[in-house]
């Protein structure tokens, strides 16, 4: 944003994840730029350190929607002192400002001894500010009318955009080309998929096995042509994800007037044309003559041109749907439905003559109808199809076209080309219009508890709130001063006892394989050392801060100690109260609060705690005791008011960041651990929310547990709430390990004792000063290594002595031992996982209800398109129509089910990694819950679909046949759903899973038995039709409905069952085996998903 001509910058929470020293440098630079360029900069910050706060000229203080103060920084304390409130000497002004308007925190700042304190509401602050001199100055400035004569003509822009249309288009073209080059893997992978698919098609439709003698031979060629079109439609489907992913950036840049939508849309379309040319060339030029299409080279290039327009039409269609849907879930649903409608009305699945009058408009509007008509005419009017069959006055090509209801005039090729070209233009225009006028979908609001809502109302109006929310919270340090000693932890009355444990580690080294980029720059070492012999100890009832600049190795050390690293090389000794650490037992007595606050989104706060306690507390803990313990933990971390709130997704809906932090802590506490690691518990929080979380942490320590926190930019209050500090420098070395002391006196004394280190200024934050004086730049200036200074200090020797003491087991003590790896039996794990999955699915209407609604819409659409065609079986085409309805339903409903389950499983897999690492359960019970919970939902959805379709299409009303139809639909939708899960389990991300899945969808479509029947396949590919699940489904559906019919077909005189056996290889007597195999595929994919989750771990730490 700063490289443009903008002179007004608005920056929101730019310090999240940065240490205080880095934040200070950034804000200082922004201040210099603002002053030099005479700009205007407004920045919102979370927990700004005093020295960062002092860089600002003006302050805007907002509270509950009211401006409490806006004016010079120098006068803000004067204003609050006039209201009777004073900032303490060792309190950061920014922290004071955020807390003084809060009912809970306000009393501690009351400074008037002559008046009794009474809560001052936000409205009263806002009114008082209007009478304050800064408020009066602001009002006077705002009331002064605009003087046009004082404004230079060049001060306001007269154009919407900062450059000419040509320059804007050129810039967008260059950026799109750069993105395509850097994303070339996707296009290469797409081309590779098409190449593999083309090889399969070439060998499946090999011309030595393909003939030009009968109409049935022509139908096989029609299948090859239809699949060529379908392959490019599926290939264009990947544009959906590529376009959707880029939309958030586009919307931001469009709204900031970087460029108009057309300048973005044109390069997206035009630059993809060469890629389309290559992709179509792979399928046409490699396969055309090998398959045995008409040898006329003109028809070869005409097929190439037609498929090029199909490819471009598909890309334009899915780009438009992406811009229309704006999210992957909505766009995927719209795209699946659009693809289904277009293919069913293409003229191949359902003959033109059999399309009902109420759907004929859809037939004429379907671009695939024009594509299929054009490609069929191009092939079957060729010389190879000019022979005249005996007893007919038409050529074989004309007979083939008429048998499936296609047009027979040559003009339909050019009509098809023209129509496709028109659709390419129309879809890209619609894409541009959608980008121009649609806004990004809004985010849901985060949870506001009832108590918090009452408190906000009371803060604004000054009314007295309920007693439950009016109790003063006190500050962190007072809690610390009054905290219970470790040996008195029972005073907090926790129902379940625990054994206080200490952690000691000595000479810990952690390294990873040297990155290839660094080796390319001349680095000879094979390993990159991230921790260089770190030593220390953590004790019960002591709160330890693990600090350092970004890249110092804080989280790395915590992951190593907690056993959460999934790769790399670990050396050194770790002991737990005198015994060597064993990860199997350590997971049972430790908790790890991750920075990202990963939880299942569709369960409540209370249910999250019940689930964690159920699986992590010992099996001999009674249910009532467990519930009492959960209630105590909720009270400890102040979650009672949120017990029934849904967790939600971070930054989207559900709990706020601060509430999620407290839930993360509670989820670990209900496991009754002795040791807790917390990674950045205050990251992303404002000062008041951070204080609430730290009060929770302090309460946890006061129970006698060992607690270690990494922390970035603490305020003075938060920093001095810690008992000890473990300070690291960049490169993975410790430079101070010891107590903070009263008002950080021990820390300050240590560093000020080092020669030439600058003294701390009065009122300065010790945490910020400590990071500044120990930075790499200061080491270079002073010519010292703080790591070496620490290694040569008396403090280091004392710490080594403590480490040796903790590493020796006390007399009479025993090593940790648990008879089983997990707290609960496998059956209990399965039931708990199923319980949580049931709650998650029941509260996820975006998945369950949308899928049910999709099934109903597809059922009604199929019922109206194939209305009463199931009862017609006098002609061969009637059987093809009935089979077409089955084929389309199986393939596209199955693909929809498979695609829709993948993001759900991907979200839950992230939670699974955390829960498995915590020792809650093994992989197979998790897979059991994920698999079994789908059974009732798929059953209801398949019943709703099956009843509607069976009745509307008019299949024979026979109880046995109806039950067979429902049976095959149920297990088909089930194995597609489980295949979607398996694809996620086998791949590292949802995006890769969808790309891999699309390839198998294409292969299953090809070998389903509809595009080309099993007896027609070459013998070297016939085996795959027996391992293709969709072919078994079609076998079961067709054989169960028509396999027992002996009436002859009018156009051939062959009995129906004999035709099915000769043309498709379907026999009614084989139905029992087909039923078992179809159900077997569901079992196979479910078991494979469980094994993939158990064996593969794509989490990299």
Automatic annotation (TrEMBL):
Domain ABC transporter: 503-755
Record keywords, A-Z: ATP-binding, Membrane, Nucleotide-binding, Repeat, Transmembrane, Transmembrane helix, Transport
Keyword Electron transport: no
Cellular component, GO, one term: membrane
Cell location: Membrane
Gene Ontology terms for molecular function: ABC-type transporter activity; ATP binding; ATP hydrolysis activity
Domain of life of the source: Eukaryota
Membrane topology of the entry: Multi-pass membrane protein
Family to which the UniProt record says this protein belongs: Belongs to the ABC transporter superfamily. ABCG family. PDR (TC 3.A.1.205) subfamily.
Name this protein carries in UniProt: ABC transporter domain-containing protein
Organismal lineage: Eukaryota, Viridiplantae, Streptophyta, Embryophyta, Tracheophyta
């Amino acid at each position: 944003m700063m490289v443009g001509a903008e002179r007004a910058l608005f920056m929101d929470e730019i310090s999240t994840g940065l240490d205080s020293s880095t934040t200070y440098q950034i804000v200082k630079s922004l201040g210099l730029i603002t002053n030099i360029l005479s700009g205007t900069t407004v920045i919102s910050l979370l927990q700004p350190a005093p020295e960062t706060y002092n860089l600002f000229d003006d302050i805007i203080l907002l509270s509950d929607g009211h401006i409490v103060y806006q004016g010079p920084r120098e006068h803000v304390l004067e204003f609050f002192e006039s209201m009777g409130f004073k900032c303490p000497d060792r309190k950061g002004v920014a922290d004071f400002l955020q807390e003084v308007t809060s009912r809970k925190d306000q009393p501690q700042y009351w400074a008037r001894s002559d008046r009794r304190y009474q809560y001052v509401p936000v409205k009263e602050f806002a009114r008082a500010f209007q009478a304050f001199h800064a408020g009066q100055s602001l009002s006077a400035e705002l009331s002064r009318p605009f003087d046009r004569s004082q404004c230079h003509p060049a001060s306001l822009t007269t154009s919407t955009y900062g450059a000419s249309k040509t320059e804007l288009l050129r810039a967008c073209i260059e950026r799109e080309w750069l993105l395509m080059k850097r994303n070339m893997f996707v296009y290469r992978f797409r081309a590779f998929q098409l190449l593999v698919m083309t090889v399969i098609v070439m060998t499946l439709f090999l011309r030595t096995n393909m003939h030009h003698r009968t109409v049935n031979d022509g139908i096989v060629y029609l299948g090859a042509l239809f699949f060529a079109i379908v392959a490019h439609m599926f290939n264009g489907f990947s544009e959906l994800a590529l376009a959707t992913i880029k939309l958030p950036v586009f919307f931001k840049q469009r709204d900031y007037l970087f460029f108009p939508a057309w300048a973005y849309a044109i390069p997206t379309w035009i630059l993809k044309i060469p890629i389309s040319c290559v992709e179509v060339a792979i399928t046409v030029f490699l396969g055309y003559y090998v398959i045995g299409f008409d040898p006329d080279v003109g028809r070869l290039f005409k097929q190439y041109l037609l498929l090029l327009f199909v490819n471009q039409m598909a890309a334009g269609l899915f780009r438009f749907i992406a811009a229309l849907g704006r999210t992957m879930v909505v766009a995927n649903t719209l795209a699946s439905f659009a693809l289904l409608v277009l293919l069913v009305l293409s003229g191949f699945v359902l003959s033109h003559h059999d399309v009902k009058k109420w759907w004929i408009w859809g037939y004429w509007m379907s671009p695939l109808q024009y594509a299929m008509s054009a490609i069929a005419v191009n092939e079957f009017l060729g010389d190879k199809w000019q022979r005249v069959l005996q007893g007919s006055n038409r050529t074989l090509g004309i007979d083939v076209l008429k048998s499936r209801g296609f047009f027979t005039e040559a003009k339909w090729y050019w009509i098809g080309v023209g129509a496709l070209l028109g659709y390419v233009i129309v879809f890209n225009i619609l894409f541009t219009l959608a980008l121009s006028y649609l806004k990004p979908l809004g985010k849901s609001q985060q949870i506001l508890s009832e108590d918090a809502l009452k408190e906000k109302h009371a803060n604004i109006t000054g009314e007295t709130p309920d007693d439950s929310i009016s109790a003063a919270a006190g500050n962190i340090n007072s809690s610390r001063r009054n905290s219970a000693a470790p040996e008195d932890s029972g005073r907090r009355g926790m129902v379940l006892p625990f054994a206080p444990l200490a952690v000691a580690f000595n000479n810990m080294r952690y390294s990873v394989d040297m990155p290839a980029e660094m080796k390319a720059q001349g680095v000879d070492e094979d390993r990159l050392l991230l921790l260089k012999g770190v030593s220390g100890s953590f004790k019960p009832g002591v709160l330890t801060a693990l600090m350092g600049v970004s890249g110092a190795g804080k989280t790395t050390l915590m992951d190593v100690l907690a056993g959460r690293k999934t790769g790399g090389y670990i050396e050194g000794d770790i002991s737990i109260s005198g015994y060597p650490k064993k990860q199997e037992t350590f997971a049972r007595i430790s908790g790890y609060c991750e920075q990202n606050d990963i939880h299942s989104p569709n369960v409540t706060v209370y249910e999250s705690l019940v689930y964690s306690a159920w699986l992590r507390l010992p099996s001999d803990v009674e249910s009532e005791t467990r519930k009492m313990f959960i209630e105590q933990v909720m009270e400890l971390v102040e979650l009672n008011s949120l017990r029934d709130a849904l967790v939600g997704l971070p930054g989207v809906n559900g709990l706020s960041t601060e509430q999620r932090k407290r839930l993360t802590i509670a989820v670990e506490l209900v496991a009754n651990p002795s040791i807790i690691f917390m990674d950045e518990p205050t990251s992303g929080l404002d000062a008041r929310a951070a204080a609430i979380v730290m009060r929770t942490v302090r309460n946890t320590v006061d129970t006698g547990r060992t607690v270690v926190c990494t922390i970035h930019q603490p305020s003075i209050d938060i920093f001095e709430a810690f008992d000890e500090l473990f300070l690291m420098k960049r490169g993975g070395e410790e430079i101070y390990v010891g107590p903070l002391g009263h008002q950080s006196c021990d820390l300050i004394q240590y560093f000020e004792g080092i020669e030439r280190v600058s003294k701390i200024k009065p009122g300065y934050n010790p945490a910020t000063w400590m990071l500044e004086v120990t930075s790499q730049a200061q080491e270079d200036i002073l010519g010292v290594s703080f790591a070496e200074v620490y290694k040569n200090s008396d403090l280091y020797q004392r710490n080594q002595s403590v480490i040796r003491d903790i590493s020796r087991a006390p007399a009479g003590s025993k090593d940790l031992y648990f008879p089983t790896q997990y707290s609960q039996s496998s059956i209990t794990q399965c039931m708990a996982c199923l319980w949580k999955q049931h709650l998650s699915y029941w509260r996820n209407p975006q998945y369950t209800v949308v899928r049910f609604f999709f099934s109903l819409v597809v059922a009604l659409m199929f019922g109206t398109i194939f209305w009463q065609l199931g009862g017609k079986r006098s002609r061969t085409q009637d059987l093809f129509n009935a089979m077409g309805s089955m084929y389309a339903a199986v393939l596209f409903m199955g693909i929809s089910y498979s695609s829709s389950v993948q993001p759900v499983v991907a979200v839950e897999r992230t939670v699974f990694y955390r829960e498995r690492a915590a020792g809650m359960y093994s992989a197979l019970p998790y897979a059991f819950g994920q698999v079994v919970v789908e059974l009732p939902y798929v059953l209801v959805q398949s019943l709703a679909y099956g009843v509607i379709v069976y009745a509307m299409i008019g299949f024979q009303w026979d109880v046995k046949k109806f039950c067979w139809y429902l049976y095959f639909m149920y297990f088909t939708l089930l194995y597609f759903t489980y295949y979607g899960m398996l694809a996620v389990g086998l791949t590292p991300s949802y995006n890769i899973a969808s790309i891999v899945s699309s390839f198998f969808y294409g292969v299953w479509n090809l070998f389903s038995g509809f595009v080309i029947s099993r007896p027609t396949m070459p013998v070297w590919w016939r085996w795959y039709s027996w391992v293709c699940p969709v072919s078994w489904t079609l076998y079961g559906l067709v054989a169960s409905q028509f396999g027992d019919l002996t009436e002859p077909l009018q156009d051939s005189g062959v009995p129906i069952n004999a035709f099915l056996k000769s043309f498709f290889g379907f026999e009614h007597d084989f139905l029992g085996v087909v039923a078992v195999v179809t159900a077997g595929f569901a079992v196979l994919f479910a078991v494979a998903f469980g094994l993939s989750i158990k064996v593969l771990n794509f989490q990299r730490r």
